[in-house]
Amino acid sequence: MDQQQDNADNLPAVDTDLPVENLPPPTPEQIAEWREQAAKAEDHWQRLLLQAADFENYKKRAARERQESITYANESLLQKLVPILDNFEMALAAATHNSGAAKSLQTGVSMIAGQLKNVLTEAGLEEIDATGKKFDPNIHEAVSEVATTEVPEGHVAQQIRRGYKYRNRLIRPAGVVVAKSPV
């Protein structure tokens, strides 16, 4: 407001009671000043529009990041639990090869593994079943190759380690043996 007052003080006094036709023509200095002020006003308007657009983009990006944060909040927990699930499965495999007293151990470990799998599945963890599927480097990690005619070349011949996804995001790729044609 003060700047407007200052600008008004610099202008020559104009009798506002005169009809518009009777106003003196503007001086070249006044025209140049008005053009300068109009250019400044346009510059300020463009800056305002740019800042408004930047702020809208910021709000959208912050909302998207916040939603992604909420969606994938359990990811680090699941990454820590997956190796435990692997150890349960290895214990089950070892207990299967021994008979007798190991039978009760196998039953108990099997129940725990089932419970853990159910909890992880409810939390959004999804197993990647790779056996027999075409090798996909986005979800599979090739551990080795094997020459075989049982599985087409470029397909998974054997799954060494399970892979996992959490809500369509890869947690760990499946460790696989890829088939190649025998020589």
Describe this structure in words.
The protein has 183 residues and is of the alpha+beta class. It has 3 domains: 24-71; 74-123; 126-183, Nucleotide Exchange Factor Grpe, Chain A, domain 2. The chain is 53% helix and 18% strand. The chain contains 4 helices and 6 strands. Strand 4 (163-166) and strand 5 form a beta hairpin. The chain is elongated.
Briefly summarize what is shown.
This protein is α+β, with helices and mostly antiparallel strands and 183 residues long. It is 53% helix and 18% strand.
SSE topology sketch:
Blueprint: H1 2-10, H2 28-71, H3 75-97, H4 102-122, E1 125-128, E2 140-147, E3 156-161, E4 163-166, E5 169-172, E6 174-180
Parallel strand pairs: 2-6
Antiparallel strand pairs: 1-4, 3-6, 4-5
Q: Briefly, what CATH class of the largest domain?
A: Mainly Beta
Cα end-to-end separation = 88 Å
Helical fraction: 40-55%
CATH architecture of the largest domain, by name, is Roll
Indicate how many domains the architecture comprises.
Answer: 3
Question: Can you summarize the main beta sheet?
Answer: 3 strands, antiparallel
Rg computed from alpha carbons, rounded to a whole number of angstroms: 36 Å
Give the SSE order as H and E letters.
Answer: HHHHEEEEEE
Q: Identify the overall geometry.
A: elongated
CATH superfamily of the largest domain: Head domain of nucleotide exchange factor GrpE
